[in-house]
Design a protein that fits this description.
The complex is a heterodimer of chains A (about 375) and B (about 160).
Chain A lengths: L1 H9 L5 E6 L11 E7 L2 E8 L7 H5 L4 H8 L7 H16 L5 H29 L3 H22 L8 E2 L2 E2 L7 H24 L2 H7 L7 H7 L3 H5 L7 H4 L20 H23 L20 E9 L2 E9 L7 E5 L1 H7 L1 H5 L4 H11 L3 H5 L1
Antiparallel strand pairs in A: 1-2, 2-3, 4-5, 6-7, 7-8
Helix pairs in contact in A: 3-4, 4-5, 5-6, 5-12, 5-15, 6-7, 7-12, 12-15
Chain B lengths: L1 H33 L25 E4 L6 E2 L6 H5 L5 E9 L5 E11 L8 H5 L5 E4 L13 E3 L6 E2 L6
Parallel strand pairs in B: 2-7
Antiparallel strand pairs in B: 1-5, 3-4, 4-6
Classes of the chains: A alpha+beta (about 375), B alpha+beta (about 160).
Bound molecules: iron/sulfur cluster (SF4) (2 copies).
């Protein structure tokens, strides 16, 4: 960084510029600042500067109890709020050795998959918009609205649901939950081909995405790029497959893998994952067993002293929760391994040599959620 | 020769891909222009009267009162302990019950809406089910002090069946 500035200062004839992209730039989808070194229009360095939305969530967790932590995790990757809740709940439940009722596991898995679809819809909508296809924004949000209504009906909130609690759920699902989910599946199965017609085959989109931002499998593993971005490079990293939690082991689904590693591959992983998620929900929705929606828990949850790790697959990759407990009712140390921070690390590698407009496409395809990067 | 052929093929497939996309947008344009089947947006705030939130909707924390202006809160302070943000403050008072014994009762249940993250832990934790979700979501005010609310209504009493 400083080195770069010196080059600029020392050489007035240098053709290299440092340009600030963000923190207030619509295409960074949040307050992310990228210091981009450009020569003409070609990117030759990208330095992300994080911290504009750092709230110290990990530190805050050290002062509050485990059930209270849940509502903070909503605010990391807000599009995967359910999955974030799930990670903390599983970590606490496994540490205590609590067996949650089967009904809870089914509902959690369905909710996770619904929010994955909703997240991918929003991603598709904004990614299209990044590339100049404004229509996708309306279509994606229109369909996501249906899922948000389902969430609101059962959890009471559209966005930051805080629906899971160690041992179960905050409240039972709405009696119409199953009916509405099934209606949505029928509705969305009909509309998903429209997404393809609108953007996937579009000549402008294809020209801007194919062979753009190549990420090799080695780099994906080295940088810890998980989620659709990692799987677009052939890195088999789906936690749902490798370390199943919830009732994923009861559903049949494929891990979407592609080998190209370009923007288009990541795009296609997103699109196919929506189909797989619908498949999972279809298999589970009719089999939700009756029973309690919460297991019997002590009023004050204290984890036995020790270290606990739990990872789940959010819409953007592997979210890990690491708890160090000293036996108290709040954790001694809480660490979140957020997928977006690792995914951000590889951005420079992907963008060097491309044009500055392609940086938007590459960043968009990596699906960054900035509050998850900063936490 | 082959290159020229490829060149024209590319142009045609490009045009075809554009028209496929245009067909989709055209379809919705026609539906929206000539019918009113596909209206997704709501006219807020014009529809305020008909607007009904879901039963579970988490608008704000309220204390339920029955028709005799009686609530169920005994001032135990468990909700205050459970709130992660310190948005609840219980101001208790001493009160004599029917037998003339001094008991702890609620004076003011102070709720700071501005600090609430709508997690629902207070409502879940309350042993006597005194709290519930309110449906109001229009919380914008001109003065910050209006966001500090006292949940027990003035002059309200505790219901008979609630133990201290
Ligand atoms: S609202 Fe409930 S938890 Fe809070 S002080 Fe009153 S009775 Fe106790
Ligand atoms: S909903 Fe949560 S943040 Fe709001 S007052 Fe209750 S416990 Fe506190």
């Amino acid at each position: 960084m400083i080195e770069n500035r010196e080059i600029l200062l020392n050489d007035p004839n240098s053709e290299r510029y440092l340009v600030n992209m963000g923190p207030q730039h619509p295409s960074t989808h949040g307050v992310l600042r990228l210091v981009v070194g450009i020569k003409g229009e070609t990117v030759d360095s990208v330095q992300p500067h994080c911290g504009y939305i750092h709230r110290g969530i990990e530190k805050m967790c050290e002062h509050i109890t485990y059930p209270q932590i849940i509502h903070l995790t909503d605010r990391m990757d807000y599009l995967s709020a359910h999955q974030n809740n799930h990670a903390v709940c599983l970590a606490v439940e496994n540490a205590l050795g609590v067996q949650v009722p089967e009904r809870v596991q089914y509902i959690r898995t369905i909710m996770d998959e619904l929010s994955r679809i909703a997240s991918h819809q929003l991603w598709w909508a904004t990614f299209g918009m990044d590339l100049g296809a404004l229509t996708t924004f309306f279509y994606g949000l229109r369909d996501r609205e249906k899922i948000l209504d389902i969430f609101e009906e059962s959890t009471g909130s559209r966005f930051l649901q805080s629906y899971y609690t160690p041992g179960g759920l905050m409240k039972d699902i709405h009696p119409d939950f199953q009916k509405h989910v099934k209606e949505f599946l029928v509705y969305f199965r009909k509309l998903l081909p429209e997404y393809d017609q609108l953007l996937t085959g579009n000549v402008i989109y294809r020209a801007r995405s194919i062979n753009m931002g190549l990420l090799s499998k080695e780099d994906a593993i080295n940088y810890g790029v998980t989620g659709p971005s990692g799987r677009g490079s052939g890195f088999s990293c789906d936690v749902r497959k490798h370390k199943p939690y919830g009732v994923y082991h009861k559903a049949e689904f494929n891990e979407i893998l592609r080998t190209e590693g370009d923007v288009h591959a990541r795009y296609m992983v997103h699109m196919d994952e929506m189909r797989e998620s619908m498949k999972i929900i279809e298999q589970l929705i009719d089999n939700i067993p009756a029973g309690d929606f919460i297991a019997k828990m002590k009023p004050v949850i204290k984890l036995p002293a020790g270290e606990y790790w739990q990872s789940v697959e959010t819409a953007r990759g592997e979210l890990g929760v690491y708890i160090v407990s000293d036996g108290n009712k709040n954790p001694y140390r809480m660490k979140f391994r957020s997928p977006n921070l690792s995914n951000l690390g590889v951005l420079e590698k992907l963008s060097i040599g491309h044009k500055i407009a392609d940086l938007i496409a590459i960043g968009g395809s990596m699906d960054y959620i900035i509050p998850d990067i900063d936490r | 020769m082959k290159e020229i052929l490829n060149y024209f093929q590319e142009i045609f497939s490009a045009i075809r891909s554009l028209t496929t996309g245009m067909k989709v947008t055209g379809k919705y344009f026609a539906i929206n222009a000539f019918t009113d089947k596909q209206v997704f947006t709501q006219k807020y705030p014009e529809n305020r009267k008909e607007l009904k939130m879901f039963d579970a909707f988490r608008g704000e924390v309220i204390m339920t009162h029955n028709e005799n202006n009686e609530h169920r809160c005994n001032g135990c302070g468990i909700c205050e302990l459970n709130c992660p943000n310190g948005s609840i403050e219980i101001i208790a008072k001493k009160e004599n019950n029917e037998d003339g014994k001094a008991i702890r009762a609620i004076d003011q249940h102070v709720y700071q809406l501005a600090m609430c993250t709508f997690c629902g832990l207070c409502i879940k934790a309350c042993p006597s089910n005194a709290l519930d979700w309110g449906q109001d979501f229009e919380h914008a005010v001109f003065d910050r002090s209006k966001l500090t609310k006292v949940l027990n209504q003035p002059g309200s009493k505790i219901q008979k069946d609630i133990k201290e």
